[in-house]
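Annotated sample (chain length 427).
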Amino acid sequence: MTISFRKSNNLYNKALNTIPLATQTFSKSSLQWPLGASPMFFEKAKGCKIVDVDGNTYIDYLLSLLPIILGYQDKDVDIAVKEQMKKGVVFSMSHPIEIELAEKIKSIIPYAEMVRFGKNGSDVLSAAVRLARAYTKKDIVLVSGYHGWHDWYIGSTSRNMGVPKEVSRLTKTFKYNDINDLVKKIKKFKNKICAIIVEPDGIIIPEKHYLKELKSLCQKSGILLIFDEIVCGFRTHIGGASKKFGIMPDLGCFGKSMANGYPISAIVGRKKIMRNIEEIFVSGTFAGETLSMAAALATIKKLEILNVPQKLEELGSKLIKQTNDIILRLNLQKYIEMEGNNWWPRFTFKNQSNITLHLFRQELIKSGLFIGSSYNLCLKHNNKQIFNSTISRMKKSLEKVKYFLETKEPEKFLEGKKLKGVFNVRK
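Output written by the structure step:
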């Protein structure tokens, strides 16, 4: 199947004149997608299908990096936004919808005694770190996972250029699911650690008792436990990971799926800690923007009524089974495997040079599947025709990938610009 990306390539070259990397997001850049063999610009989407500027249609399993949980242009969410738009978007003082949404979140997340809003994950995670430092009077943060682009976190990664070393030294990493590694870090930086931040559920599933032991360590050491639920919130469970596992952190951060694509995030937590926001400085002109709040209320209502997380869990389980069957039948398991949660099935590529990933993406694009490294799921994927089409296209694509990989020179089958990794912290 031949696909043209002429308009997309032209827009990319035009964008380079005014936009670094031609995009606002690293994960949407030519570092991650094979320029010339991938669309770089989309112009419309509906349900679980997306159309690029050249008119090519795909079943979308990237979902704009996971904020879409119901499907693009969900009718109920869009109606709620349009109704709020008639009244206004932002105001000179607070709007009552802020209280309504805060109370709704408090009703579904067990430890959410108080709520404060932001516009993205980095916003509220940075607020959580500042809050933890103010509350504990300590500075070091221990992290395991991806926690945004702000200095306090990104300084701990290989993308640390521009971050003062004095800032980077205050964030230390540890291995998820390894209590012994965490104990060593706590002993090393004893009485200096303000918080431990983890993605409680995601690509790596927490081992039995891990979160319980983590919570116990924090309590014994006077350290705040912060759950980064920007990705897993509203997907692993409507009430978040604390509802799923029965472990209550001190603070939690939510975003992405809570408004089906509209920009909003939230930091939640125990009142005696959250009250300290009144003394530190966390503020944003657009944090109380009402369209996204209307979208969040409509999204959460629909997630509850339709029990969407359960549906995505069941769909993911089927996709994992069918995809693994294909991988095993083609004897591709030495190159590719699936792991992670049923709600977030993820491909692992064992070829460290990115050749397998490149071939995987280029061939899936040709087949009409837009997939990064995981099945990012929304309610509109929960359809027999979509499921069967996905498995059929996956099979045909992986057959081609197998053929290419088993030649002596798989590199010669690469189309477009070679991929270049940014960094990988979820491992």
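Annotation: The chain is about 40% helix and 15% strand.
Annotation: The first helix runs from residue 6 to 15.
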